[in-house]
Amino acid sequence: MKAIIDNIECQRDSPRFRQVLEENEKDLDTLEGKLEKVVKQCNQMVAAGKQFNQEQEQLIHILWDLAGYFGNDTNVQSALNRMLAALGEAAKYHTILVDQAARAVTKNLASFIKKELRSVKDLRHYFEKVSGEMDNVLQRSSSVSRSRANDADDIKNLVIATRRAFRHTSVDYVHAISIAQGKKRHEVVDALLSYLKAYSTFYHQGTDLCDDLKPSLDKISQEVNLMRHEVNDLEKTLENRHTDVTDKDLVLSLEQMDTSQPVTMHGYLFKRTTNAFKTWNRRYFTLQNNQLVYRKRSGIRKSVRNSGGSNLLNSRLTRAHGGEEVTVMEEDLRLCTVKPAIEVDRRFCFEVVSPMKCHMLQAESEESYDSWITALQRGIGQALQSSHNSIQDNRQETPGSSPHPQKGSLTPATPVDSSNSSSPATTPQAPTAHKAQLWQEIMSIPGNDHCCDCNCSNPRWASINLGISLCIECSGIHRSLGVHYSKVRSLTLDAWEPEVLKVMAELGNTVINSIYLATYVPGEGTGPPEAKPDSQRSVREAWIKAKYVTRQFVKPLPLIQESSSPLPNSSSQEKVHSGKSWSIPRRRRQIRRRKTLQACQINVEETSSIDDNSSSQEESHTETQNVSDSPVASSSSSSDVLLLDIAPSLPNRTTEDFSSLSDDCSTDGEGPNGHVTPESASNLTPNMVLFRACEAHNLAMMSHSIALGAEKNWHNPDESGRTPMHQAVISGSVMAVQHLLINGARPNEQDSSGCTPLHLAALLSNIGQVCLLLKHRVDLNLCNNEGLKAIDIALESSEPDVVTLLRVASLSEHIDRDGGEDNNMLTDFLRDFQEKMCIQGYRTRQNEDTLN
After folding, report:
1. Backbone angles phi, psi at 554, to 5 degrees
2. Over the stretch 543-582, which tens digit does the pLDDT of each residue have?
3. Of the four listed, 66, 102, 327, 526, which is most buried by Cβ atoms within 10 Å?
4. CA 718 and chain centroid, separation
């Protein structure tokens, strides 16, 4: 290849030289324009290729997600995995091809344009500039006069220098054009060749990939044909699908139930809600593993809560059932009974009764009704029987273990009645720290380390209204008595409210037995034989009924003896002068009080108070008095006041022993110190004893008066028609109110001024009592004689916490009236509020300890 023109012609600057330059310049300009179009289009192709690769990668990612959908179908998932792996490999080859196109075409040609063609343009501008300067010098040289010799020599030298510069520039310019004309050929061809080589490599890789994939594709094709045949066979099988349709209720019949296997039952039932409208909702129920659970027909519940009535705090419990979340209606069937609902107007209704709540259910047919009742009864029986067998097995496995374990300790050999619970959180092999601590605290109460009725060790059940611990055999008999006699709860399965724990701490087996076995003398043969740990059920049942139903061994109150009649030296029942008075000492417990109630805010004292000297004598007398066989302790002969108390020598127990299990805001402590208002001996009746015991928040005397048959809703005509619960609220005791509520007292009773216990609690700003009453769903709309509701009184007393509680309760009641199913707002708020108050109380105690 030669230069575009030789150097001689370049130096001559002939017209031919100029013509050749012009022709080559136009040619290179045309080439530059075309190459720029190629580069631009290639850039667009590369951008589109990259976008294609991104979309292809996204498609493969979505296909992988689709393959995960067929996780249970190994054939489909395996085929999809093989094909998607091949697609992923092909996508990589596409990416390499696009990159090669960008390097081979765009990068190489753009570099040629920039380095060669653009440099030629730059030299052209310089050449034209030097050429113009040479023309100007030659023009000046031609116009110099002969007479001016000096000017002629100067211009001559300038011409020589300018011509030399022009000739060097022209030679360089011709060189650049020649090189550009030469390079354009191989640069363009090489760029396209590299692009085609990339295509060749792409197709070779694709061919190799397809060759390797061919056996797998053939196998997948056969599997697809087999799947297609299976679908065709299924379609033929389902052609007679309507012949299987039946009008019968598809439930497990009585004959189909296998009594040797654990009871399992499932199906739809109508459940009545607990709101004001009592609406019925259709839910899918499942009975298995000693639990009754339900869920909606479609969708997974976002919030799962325990609807069992044994937990007033309504703590939320999540249970997995078939991979979905369900609502646990009854945590343990051993706590339940089932019976037909005769009083309901709807057909096929029955009740599932737990210690604290009754669930109303309705079957869809008579067959379903019979099947569900039978299944529930058998399930309850199997749960109780398996629990009994587990305890017997544990006793046989540990014959050498001590029958009296150390108080407040958990040993591996200790049998726990929650062994049959299906919840892993409550099994004895992995008890939670909270329930273990609960068991230890309740066992530390005097007498609670043995069953209250048969003296069996390691009780795991309790009667919350009596305040005693029980073994599983005695708890079953207590449950059969009915909730008006005994409300049974598990120490290891159920959740316990702080207020109930504090009631348990005040009572216990020793105190209750001093009431219900006050006149029992072992070995005299009066009444049924005493129950023992190995007694038969009939012996236990006779003993428990004599103890709690007929109350055969409860010592009555002292008889009233006229002043003129001498007192006998001995009698089976104590007698007191009619002119004497009696009083009940307040229980003095060491409690850090969050707030001191000022009883003077309301006119609650309508009788004269005891003078300081008398109070000191009575307190001293109570503290130094020994335990007597009778729960009614007489004062010394020098005192005019008869003190009524139960086991006064028992050590005072502080509710702070249960601080880890309860919250300080659930009790506000005691009222004034000393004794309650003294009463005349003529008023020594069970009703009046209960009334004054509530004023003194003396739970032992409250239990004694209830055992004597005191009416829990009795209105005292001499004190504004107030009930015992009114007196408990006025005294500031949450435990006394709780004790009345779990023993069946009505919280909506009004005194002569129309005030309910909630009115008084709001007036006294007793947050703990307000929380407790709201938990038991008191009527917020009752007005006193002045037309004021409890919230109106709270607004006047300016206690923000009480106002907030009542407003939230009113809002929750409004939601219930609007038909909201299973409204749980108030329960959740009370639980969160109590937790907050518990933290505040703990910090307050820490500050007090620091200051002290």
Report:
1. -80, 130
2. 999 999 999 888 888 766 654 444 444 445 566 666 677 7
3. 327
4. 50
